[in-house]
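Notebook B, p. 112. Complex prediction, attempt 2.
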Amino acid sequence: MNGAYGRSRRFAWLEKDNVIGYVFLAPFLIFLFLFMILPIFQGLYMSFFDWNALTPPAFVGLGNFQTMFGEVDFWSSLWHTVYFVIISTLPLVGLGLAIALGLNRSFRGKTIARGLFFFPYLLTVSVVATIWRWVLQEHFGLLNYYLGKLGAASLKWLGDPNLAMISIALATLWWTVGFNVVVFLAALQEIPEQLYEAARIDGATPWQLFRHITLPQLQTSLTFVFITQIIASFQVFGQVNVMTGGGPFGSTRTLVQYIYEQGFKYLKMGYASAVAYLLFAIMFVCTALQWKLFSNDNDE
Amino acid sequence: MINDNLLRRSAGRHGWKGLIFLAFLWLAALLWILPVLWMISTSLKPETMVMTLVPQWIPPVVTLENYVRALQKAPIMLWFYNSSVMAVCGTLLVLLVDAMAAYSFARIRFAGSKLLFIITLCTMMVPSQVTLIPLYLLFNRFNLLNTFWVVILPRASAAIGVFMLRQFFLGVPVELEDAVRIDGCSRYGIFWRIILPLARPALAALGIFTFVWSWNDYLWPLITLSSKEMYTLPIGIATLVGYFARDYGMLMAGAIIASIPTLIVFLFFQREFIQGITTSGLKG
């Protein structure tokens, strides 16, 4: 590397840029090492110990993982998480794309319309959860009132184990779809207009334009949004914690809520670390699978 | 008011199909903002008018009593102050640390640069839950739990900002630096006087993004801040939901107060914020 400068290589490590490079990098490296790299390895290490922060840690090997696979609560929170990923990701990507396609046209008040969809993203999760607890309230809630007008029965949105997770997904859709819309809009605006013009001259229908120009051109951003969305959904926590606290009857307890309870309520630090690493492994596999899937699509 | 004339003109521009489409789009946009309007409406109603079986969108009597009550019953202004200090300090720290690291990765050749950059990128893939408990124990060992430090410091270890700024620095022409260098300007001089001023748009985007993200952060402050006096606004609001579960007027007032700073930041720096999303988004 230093050879490029054409100087003596014997004292390469003394080369001025070497020092300056590290001087500029030092603050970040210290933070990265202390608060990221060290904890990453420590978490893995801890997952092999029984560690309650009060008594000395005891080595249990893969015991925590064995315990985990035998716990009913673990399996149910894993299932709730997967269920949430499924019911939240498709609407968040699909509706995000639909809204972006709509907003991509030119019309008066476009900026305002974009702002309205994006606005909830600026709110903090406990505010979002507070609003939706009010909207979904059984007796005085907006949603039940207007559904009632349409002839539907009042529903216990957050109190019914079958509905609670759907309610949380609804609030999440409202809260974060604007982010995906912005990413899609940016990608849509990159598509050269000539592509559409040429196809229109050949008599392509709007559906054909979408299928053969828009979708392929959006491939990169679709992959990106899909993957980040699934990763984000696997990590759902705040909405659950404020809206239901994992209830009713544990029906909305997700993996992160489970980690939080085991680690900070029952002080099972080693066990909670093991669950965190399992969550990491699942997310990693999902991401890898999707990359493979989408890049195969590309080759066709 | 949509009069006949305007309707016909719009139809001429968009076509009838386009008009139906637009109406649908605006309806959706309105529907999207309804929960926020309902929050504002509730926050302005007297306590006795909040729970009604038929929703009243326009409060019959407008009052600020919910806001007063929120400020009296909970240390909201203290939480506001805590949130501000943590978000502002965190953002400044991230900007300085990330800009220096990004400049180093983008422009300086040194042994190990590539490897360190790859390691940095890899850390972006690790979910925060993995480091949650070890980080908590680390801060516990140094007796820093329940202080500003525990919230501010770990933010500077996120690699996304370094990555974003590095992309930007790579686009700055090298000739500009070479010219100043020949005039005898040091690396530090180049960084402070040439690179940082040039990078203002990128720094603004990262700064605004970091501020909003810090202000809205939830899980980490929830775990590390244990006393009411140290809470950030999001954590404080979440505890109010537990204590005053049925006092929706007050909860909505508190929620609005908690949302003001990020809204102001967004209104002033819309373009930079959107830019931050798209650059960190598409090229991440």
